[in-house]
Amino acid sequence: MTQDQVIQDQTDSSALDGDAGFAARSFLRSGGLTSDQVRRRPVIGIATSWSELNPCNLPTRPMAEAVKRGVAAAGGIALEFPTISLAESLVHPTTMLLRNLMAMDVEEMISASPIDAVVLLGGCDKTVAAQLMGALSADKPALSLTTGPRPAGRWRGGELTIDDSWRIADERRSGLLDDRAWREVEGCISPGPGVCNVMGTAVTLAMIAEILGFAPPGSSLLPAGSPQRLASAEQAGARAVELARDPVLPSRLVTREALTDAWRLVCATGGSTNAVIHLQALAGRAGVRLSTRHLREASRTTPTLGQARPNGPHTLADLHDEGGVPAVVRELGPLLHLDRPTADGSNWREVAAGTAPGPGRALRPAADPVHPHGAIAVLHGSLAPRSAVIKRSAASPRLLRHTGPALVFDGLADLRARIDDPDLPVTADTVLVLRGAGPIGGPGMAEVGGLPIPAKLYRAGVRDMVRVSDARMSGTAAGTVVLHVTPEAAVGGPLALVRDGDPIRLDVPAGTLDLLVDPDTLDRRARDTPPATAPRPARGYRRLYADHVGQADEGCDFDFLHATPEETP
Predict the structure, then answer these.
(1) Residue burial 63-75, b: 16+ Cβ < 10 Å; e: rest
(2) Alpha carbon distances (Å) from 277 to 146, 228, 303, 523
(3) Alpha-carbon gap, residue 201 to 207, rounded angstroms
(4) 392-414 burial by CB neighbour count: b if 16+ within 10 A, else e?
């Protein structure tokens, strides 16, 4: 039953007693609902991505029960329904390959179901991105609730968070960690369900949902399974009933101003580089132009304030204690559009005004930033004509300006086969290049852009190098890593023309990434070596993906899912 039908029923008591609604009412009543419930109450859908193949999303089950309590108390009916679920660590080759499939699933289930509003329950990063994308395209009132970060682990007397896994893996590859220690740490680093417990992509997407107006203010950093998170879910259920009666549509929330504010939030806190792609996808769904030049300028004019891992020594709990997203909004106030609505019906100006300043550890004040520019820099240049990105806050300052010879790996199999070869021709000044790992070449643009340090260099004490690829990188990772080089090699981007020994110049302060090879040589290479494109899939979703996926600067969404001018509000 839709809200329009509820309104109609209030003026015409027979409106919902005709043949058209009979089957829907009878099927709903078979589940125990009453005649009055199926006729006169707002229906709130709960889209859940709970799955035993997705530990990040396991806490959604008790959250769904809390949402139902809130919906019932506010006079609505809550009906839970599943969608597919994407766990980054358990899906091959990458969840990014399936993000658009999940977004289509979410969109069609919201659109086709007789619901007045929806509460989205998710956790792992592509899950949240797909839910927001699908809800925006369906354009029914929607709230987003994520499971929250899991607790930190402990091992041999010290605390472990998920970003430690990269260091531990390097130590293992380099022979510095024995079999016993490897098995021990495997059982300690993720001690419970919930999302990654640092400023990774899942937490970044939760914060984006909050600042866009889909999640209650202050909710994104609440710990997984905590009483506070369940209370927030119950309150969201009640709010969903209010939205069913007085709708605020996603198309009103996802504007150019809101997306720019979300991008500034990411840049201020040192969020995941993956956020760039998901924000571009939302922009395409909303019919909003969000150019990489615009993002570059917004980053340049946004200070880095966050020092939560992997950007600094502090934890997400510290950032939450210092005010979370509302505190970031308070510090960035003059740069943001504070009259935009929040998910609880207020606006960001009111929320920021009611947020007290913290001690300035995990979140530095704008008057004393970590860095005057944003944590993520957008690059352009001869090697990245359309764009690339780097997480400045997680890079080595000495490498932000660097020129070195390229060492090229053609795809992930080549990288794995040679990276630890003791005869690999590599020094600490080498620029490691991975290509053939983008949206088409991957396929799916897996999180393999954070190339490992070659074992022989790691044993010699090298802990960071400049790395360049058309792939993505986990938001939990760190290093001087240039990602999302666009166009990717598989569609003929300049990355396909790089040869071993070619000098590559990275200049993050200048915002450039250049291949220092003369144009005539590159033209000759382009004529002699056509792009090494992957075979076109014969059937199914992968065929659809290969035919329609966009590049990173287009959000890697399908071209036919972008809003047309006629559809744009």
Answers:
(1) bbbbbbbbbbebe
(2) 19, 31, 21, 30
(3) 10
(4) bbbbeeebbebebbbbbbbbbee
Q: How far apart are CA 77 and CA 16, in angstroms?
A: 17
Provide the strand spans (E) within 208-307: none
Reference 324, options 314, 339, 334, 335; nearest CA is: 314
Helix-helix angle 60-73:227-245, to 10 degrees: 50
Structure tokens at 63: 């959250």
Q: Any idea of the CA torsion for 287, 265, 126, 95, to the nearest 10 degrees?
A: 100
Record the pTM.
Answer: 0.94
* Tokens of residue 533, six digits: 């494109």
**What is the rounded distance in angstroms from the CA atom of residue 38 to the CA atom of residue 19?**
14
Q: How far is CA 179 from the centre of its chain?
A: 34
Q: What is the pLDDT of residue 36?
A: 81
DSSP symbols for 376-396? EEEEEETTEEEEEEEEGGGS-
d(CA 445, CA 288): 24
Determine the length of the chain.
569
Q: How does pLDDT run across 401-440, given as a tens digit for each residue?
A: 999 999 999 999 999 999 999 999 999 999 999 999 999 9
Alpha-carbon distance values, 554 to 125, 230, 365, 439 (Å): 18, 36, 33, 11
- What pairing do the DSSP bridges indicate for beta strands 431-435 and 467-469? parallel
- Residue in the block written with tokens 């914060």: 207
Residue 481 β-bridge partners: 467
Nearest to 166 by CA among 148, 184, 189: 189
The rounded Cα 102 to chain-centroid distance in angstroms is: 14
The Cα–Cα gap between 488 and 446 comes to 13
Sequence-ordered list of residues with C-beta below 8 angstroms from that of 548, at least 6 positions apart, any chain: 558, 559, 560
- Residue 70 corresponds to which amino acid? G
Torsions phi, psi for 468 (to 5 deg):
-135, 135
- 42 prior amide bond cis, ω within 30: no
Per 3-state DSSP, what percentage of the chain is helix, strand, and coil (rounded to 5)? 40, 15, 45
pLDDT tens profile 10-54: 434 445 566 778 888 888 888 888 888 888 899 999 999 999 999
Q: Minimal CA–CA distance to 424: which of 500, 479, 496?
A: 500
Q: What is the Cα–Cα distance from 373 to 268, expressed in whole angstroms? A: 8
The total of other beta-carbon atoms located within 10 Å of residue 524's CB is 12
> How far apart, in whole angstroms, are the C-alpha atoms of residue 215 and residue 343?
5
Q: Do the bridges between strand 481-486 and strand 384-391 make them parallel or antiparallel, or are there none, so unpaired?
A: antiparallel
Question: Residues 6 or more apart from 563 whose CB is under 8 A from it?
Answer: 137, 284, 285, 286, 287
Q: Which two tokens stand for residue 206?
A: 């939760």
Cα–Cα dist 444/99, whole Å: 9
Residue 454: left if φ>0, alpha if ψ -120 to 50, beta else—which one?
Answer: beta
